[in-house]
Amino acid sequence: MSTPVARGAEETLLQRFAHLRQSFAERLEAVSGLNEPSFVRSDWADRNTGLLEQVLSVPPSDFLRCPEILHQMFVGAKYLPHELPYVLSRLADPALAREDPVGDPPTSLIPGHQVTTSSNAVHHLHHLLRFEDISGRPVTTVDSVVEWGGGYGGLAKLFVRLHGGSPTYVLIDTPVFTAVQWLYLASVLGEAQVVLHAGPEVTVATGKINIVPIGLACRLDLDVDLFISTWALNESSVDAQRFVLDRNWFSAPSLLLGMHAGDPFAQHALDAGAVAVPLGNFMEGQQYLIR
After folding, report:
1. What is the H or E stretch that residue 4 is in?
2. Which pTM was predicted?
3. What torsion, rounded to 10 degrees, do the Cα atoms 177, 178, 184, 185 define?
4. Fewer CB in 10 Å around end: N or C, the chain?
5. End-to-end alpha-carbon separation of the chain, Å?
6. The domain spanning residue 286 has which CATH number?
7. Residue 270, domain extent
8. In this structure, are residues 108 and 118 in contact, taking their beta carbons and an 8 Å threshold?
9. Is the distance from CB of 146 to CB of 228 less than 8 angstroms?
10. pLDDT for 32-45, tens place per residue?
């Protein structure tokens, strides 16, 4: 059961979402032509089309349950028994794992704590906390990030929460997903903290979350502390992978990748000094690549 303070905060987020979703169509139209088809595999092009049909105009209040998000980006409860104990052992406060009500994600109560979380929040925290352990670099020391393929924005939100400050965070994704990310992140973090870039140039706003449609990725000129891609880069086209390599991971000294084990692209990360961390005890055939 949520505390009265938590309930009040949730009501504020939902009110903000109700306001922002009225301008979603305008935001989507602004970025709709900023694609780079050569970077997107055909299966993901189909998912983008399906999501577009679900959220066009005014997204539903449960937009995180759209099949293209729920079935592709929510891991389900099967990983909770493996990931939640580790996450709780590493968090200073279990409330850091709380889930927000925007989009109506599937949630559950953390046993022994009055905190409602989701399997996805725990999954994303697991990525970030394992990165800290393996790399030896606390999230609090990472002040600039590029994330390739940010889903609906869940990992970016939790990164900012763990960081505790105002990191400069750049999300690169397909146009429809950038619009969804804007809606979600502006609802949970506040519209002033989120910039959806619609070109023609990209001037990254320091200390904010910058959402960049993939068609503008070539106009990004920045070096960052950390490059993240959790199962998105190995599901991108060869041209997209080559683009990231040509940019040298946006000059990031630190890497956090989630990838199918055996994917040929993983060798590039290993050659760049990343360490392979198999997840076979609960995610058979999957691994982190961390530098």
Report:
1. helix 4-20
2. 0.94
3. 150
4. N
5. 40
6. 3.40.50.150
7. 4-290
8. yes
9. yes
10. 999 999 999 999 89
